[in-house]
Amino acid sequence: MARSTAMKAAGLILALLIFTFFSLAASSSNNQIQILNAERRIDLSSHIVKVFLTLKVENVGTSPASEIFLAFPPSQADQLALVKAQAAIGKKKKKSYVHLDVNPTQLPDAPNGTKYFSISLLNPLSSGETATLEVLYILTHSLEPFPAEISQLESQLVYFRDSALMLSPYHIKQQTTFIKTPSTKVESFTRVEPTKFAGRELKYGPYEDRPPYSFSPVIVHLENNSPFAVVEELLREVEISHWGNLQITEHYKLVHAGARHKGVFSRVDYQSRASVKGASSFKHLLASLPPRVHSVYYRDEIGNISSSHLRTDYRKSELEIEPRYPLFGGWKATFVIGYGLPLEDFLFESPDGKRYLNFSFGCPLAQTVVNKLTIKVVLPEGSKDPSAAVPYPVEQRLETKYSYLDVVGRTVLVLEKKNVVPEHITPFQVYYTFKPIFMLAEPLMLASVYFLFFMACVAYLQIDISIRK
Amino acid sequence: MLEEDTRKLSMADGESSREATARTLRNAFGNVFSFFILLLIGILAFSIRLFSVIKYESVIHEFDPYFNYRVTQFLTKNGIYDFWNWFDDRTWYPLGRVIGGTVYPGLTLTAGTLWWLLNSLNIPLSVETVCVFTAPIFSAFASWATYLLTKEVKGTGAGLTAAVLLAMVPSYISRSVAGSYDNEAVAIFALIFTFYLYIKTLNTGSLFYATLNALAYFYMVCSWGGYTFIINLIPMHVLLCIVTGRYSSRLYIAYAPLVVLGTLLAALVPVVGFNAVMTSEHFASFLVFIIIHVVALVYHVKGNLSPRMFKVAVTLVVSVGLVVCCAMIAVLIALVASSPTKGWSGRSLSLLDPTYASKYIPIIASVSEHQPPTWPSYFMDINVLAFLVPAGIIACFLPLSDASSFVVLYIVTAVYFSGVMVRLMLVFAPAACIMSGIALSEAFNVLTRSIKFQLPGSSGISQSGDTSMNTEGEQNDIAKTEKMDETAKERPSKKNKRKEKEPVVKASIRSRIERRLLVLPLEASVIAIILLVLLGAFYVVHCVWAAAEAYSAPSIVLTTYSREGGLHVFDDFREAYAWLSHNTEVDDKVASWWDYGYQTTAMANRTVIVDNNTWNNTHIATVGTAMSSPEKAAWEIFNSLDVKYVLVVFGGLVGYPSDDINKFLWMVRIGGGVFPHIKEPDYLRDGQYRIDSQATPTMLNCLMYKLSYYRFVETDGKAFDRVRQTEIGKKYFKLTHFEEVFTTHHWMVRIYKLKPPKNRIRGKTKKSKSKASSTSSPKRSGTGKRNPWH
């Protein structure tokens, strides 16, 4: 008892220390950084909202700053799929970009549950210096269909909620927000002067000299008929066979996440003018697969789905699939895509003798959000010490799977990630050790079984087991 | 025996031993050869059935297989005990169905065991894959069983020929292509194997085979309702043997254990249960069981008594026995006559009286496979075998043995049954194969022998060697018994077999001398062989064509070739089922005609009102009545059944002929059989069924018409129905109680939702109040109360 309380106390002290440290760090940085110019470009043309942020920051304090903080309101933080940042280096002509690390952090004086990400600068920004940062962040499920239920003939209208003023822990001298809409049809939008709508672009700003944490909520009600394809669950199984094949099986649970379909679905209307009558629906999906893909299949639990096309060239393969029926809002479909790939394109040997698989993370379907992605890498029987190198934080665990004539089972490395967007498609690596002798285990087993069988036959035919002669 | 015979002929000991070793070698070679032929036959039987997988996909076919597949899935997921106790609430809503007690579990258990076996070896095949390939595997088994059966009847040569014929007989292919996961697929194997074991017991008199026979019979009872064919055919044969004075102790051993054990085992199968002793289908076996005991007793007594004493005993027993028998029969007849169907089930009765079903049970008559076949279908299904069968029958009479008389009896009864129902062509096909196998083998035997005798080179060879070579067909197994003689020490279990074969061997020696005289001219036999080979080639070509083109379509996916040669796929059924399964609530009830019941439960996983297990006529008639009623009445019927979606199959846009409009008259008939307000003549104009402008108003206003043709006119402006080849009668109409929720790409399946009852407008309520009170329907008063303004 006494020991546990002591430990608790120690933990408390530690937490307090960290807290004070962070609060000191934060308060100091908040005061010494100011944003000279912030430009936000929000792209609403699909259901994946992309925000490009260009920040020009200046260190007005005395000590050098190594971190810049980005702030998000809690509602947006849940929808945030990805934050990327890069710094511009060099002059205008010879501009090059350097990737910067972005990590979620917490600040002590966060108002109303604001969530933070910290961008670590390459070189600390010394006093009086300026730097230009480019930030891309992606929001999913942030377009709310309104009306929530539409009929086949209506087109889909959505709400987009954001703030005209960028949420930031810093003082912003000048800021502008551009919202790009998919069509010219915008039902309404909140006006925060100066506000201008022209063509397919809505402009908020420029606003001058706003203090930290200024917020001015806006709602844009606009038409968006792009396919709201959401994969609720995607299970990708990558099976390595050292006989030269990499077998991929992908189980999809697809849903149209737009405004729910209401009432009648009329095939006559859909077939006569699908683009008008059924505008919010979609029927094609495009999956980009690696080159040299072979034995592709596309099926669901009740059999093959015949409506798919595969185009291959030496750089990539494109699989165009159609679900069994066009998907209207709220309609679901499940299907499986499977294909084989030549092993030598993906499996390599690292200098320390380990083997590693280099495969792409994410969902091969274009323009889709995956709510829950599970990647299972099935290593060959007898492989040891699996470890994964993934560029994003993912959950990892190990499983065992029994496949064709396995005795000890295959090690399966399971990677899980929520809220995955196409921008997550980057290579990841799985390292493991494997002795090639294990490849012969199954053929030898089969051979010996046959041998024993024939020996048993011979023995049965030759041995006299009768009692009476 | 033959060995002794040759020894006499050759006169020298050394020579005979040399010949004996040569023959042993030849026999060994022949055995290995026939083993490989059998292996190839198995591969042929399996692979000829894969056309459907190659041309289409690995998918379960048609209707009933989907049910079997679903049951297998349940079995593999929940285990055998849950399977026996399975009450299925997804079908026959609101009644449900006790699956464990109403299915023949043989097929399901077979595939389930296969799946379990594979998975325990860590071969992760899906249940679907196992189900798809069960039928081809079992047809390979069936052709091996045919080999064994025919070998017992007429020797190895005939056995191999019959096996190869059965491996590709179109009639059997039609029920056992990959994906056709139906009872018949395993039942035909069980049928032939049971017959084989019966004949084997009959030939050997071994109790071991008799027990196996009962077990095989048990498997057959598990698999298919057609087991009644076995339990009637075998008693018939026993009776035939007794009547023709062929009673022997072997016959007794072949029959008595089968009846006792077989009946006990059959009663273990829940779906059969006490029917095994209670229904008329089984009575013949019991009657013959009594007779064979009486006969056995008589033979026993006859053997022990002197002829005079025997006569006295006979008169005594006959006079007493007759009285007892008469009393028994009277009681039995009274019992049977007291039941309305005379103790026979509907399907069996329609076999005995082909007009029975069309008169009394429209559901049985409405199924196309229960119709009598046409002559072309015989040619389609057994092809050249039809011409070879008579020759085979004749060959069976030369000489007539117990076994060959059984085969003759089998084919005669099978011909009759196949003439009553198309479906029973399947029972006929193995018999035809066996007969043709015998005929072909005998013919080749005669022809090759005549050639051999007349070839200049061969006459010089010593006669003994020659004859043993020539009479291969029949004597192969004699030679085998001979080998048994030599190796008797090694295989003592087969010793008793030798004793049984002795008379046959003697007969064959006698016949061999006769056969020397039965020689055909050389030219004639060469030409005949060529013609026979051509005939065989024609058969093979036909079988491959039938397997590839006629019987491989899964019927759930349709394909057509466009004029440019492109393949067009109609996958509408699965589109609709997938839609139902993903986009409706789990507990929603779907009403459709019973044909689609199994598929809806299996593929869409939704509750259906009626399905292909047509056990409740009233329920089917209710759905039939709803389909043939006007919209409002239909809505009320469906609503009372808690139905949320109505599914109709419509082929008018693409010309798919087996749609609901073409089946509609059966709905009217079945509905009208229970609910007399539906009258068939109301739907016919001058006795003609039509949907064009001449159609009757009842037809044009019934639900089926409306659901099929709703907004059809907007597709081409004229509403031309490609199946009926006419413009429809009523083109523009609105639905008031149903709304279209889904139509597939080619319009083949249309799904409608029942609209919820409308809120009443105030003014209308007052007006209709008097009406409502007069009808005093509880539903209406219910809606009245729900109205907040009331």
Automatic annotation (TrEMBL), chain A:
Signal is among the record's keywords: yes
One GO-annotated biological process of the protein: protein N-linked glycosylation via asparagine
Localization (cell): Endoplasmic reticulum membrane
Assigned keywords, A-Z: Endoplasmic reticulum, Membrane, Signal, Transmembrane, Transmembrane helix
Membrane topology: Single-pass type I membrane protein
Signal peptide: 1-25
Coiled-coil ranges (or none): none
Pathway recorded for this protein: Protein modification; protein glycosylation
Membrane spanning residue stretches: 444-463
Pfam families associated with the record: Ribophorin_I (PF04597)
GO cellular component, one term: oligosaccharyltransferase complex
Top-rank taxon: Eukaryota
Job of this protein: Subunit of the oligosaccharyl transferase (OST) complex that catalyzes the initial transfer of a defined glycan (Glc(3)Man(9)GlcNAc(2) in eukaryotes) from the lipid carrier dolichol-pyrophosphate to an asparagine residue within an Asn-X-Ser/Thr consensus motif in nascent polypeptide chains, the first step in protein N-glycosylation. N-glycosylation occurs cotranslationally and the complex associates with the Sec61 complex at the channel-forming translocon complex that mediates protein translocation across the endoplasmic reticulum (ER). All subunits are required for a maximal enzyme activity.
Subunit structure: Component of the oligosaccharyltransferase (OST) complex.
Stated family: Belongs to the OST1 family.
Name used for this protein in its record: Dolichyl-diphosphooligosaccharide--protein glycosyltransferase subunit 1
Organism per entry: Salix udensis
From TrEMBL, chain B:
InterPro entries named among the record's database cross-references: Oligo_trans_STT3, STT3-PglB_core, STT3_N
GO molecular function: dolichyl-diphosphooligosaccharide-protein glycotransferase activity; metal ion binding
Stretches with biased composition (Low complexity): 771-790
CC annotations in GO: endoplasmic reticulum membrane
Comp. bias intervals (Polar residues): 458-473
Residue spans of biased composition, Basic and acidic residues class: 477-503
Documented EC number(s): 2.4.99.18
Membrane topology: Multi-pass membrane protein
Predominant place of localization: endoplasmic reticulum
Requisite cofactors: Mg(2+); Mn(2+)
Alphabetical UniProt keywords: Endoplasmic reticulum, Glycoprotein, Glycosyltransferase, Magnesium, Manganese, Membrane, Metal-binding, Transferase, Transmembrane, Transmembrane helix
Reactions the enzyme catalyzes: a di-trans,poly-cis-dolichyl diphosphooligosaccharide + L-asparaginyl-[protein] = N(4)-(oligosaccharide-(1->4)-N-acetyl-beta-D-glucosaminyl-(1->4)-N-acetyl-beta-D-glucosaminyl)-L-asparaginyl-[protein] + a di-trans,poly-cis-dolichyl diphosphate + H(+)
Domain annotation Oligosaccharyl transferase STT3 N-terminal: ranges: 32-435
Subcellular locations according to the entry: Endoplasmic reticulum membrane
Ranges for domain STT3/PglB/AglB core: 587-646
Residue spans of biased composition, Basic residues class: 759-770
Region described as Disordered: 458-503, 759-790
Binding partners and assembly: Component of the oligosaccharyltransferase (OST) complex.
Family, similarity comment: Belongs to the STT3 family.
Annotated PANTHER family: DOLICHYL-DIPHOSPHOOLIGOSACCHARIDE--PROTEIN GLYCOSYLTRANSFERASE SUBUNIT, DOLICHYL-DIPHOSPHOOLIGOSACCHARIDE--PROTEIN GLYCOSYLTRANSFERASE SUBUNIT STT3A
Name assigned to this protein: dolichyl-diphosphooligosaccharide--protein glycotransferase
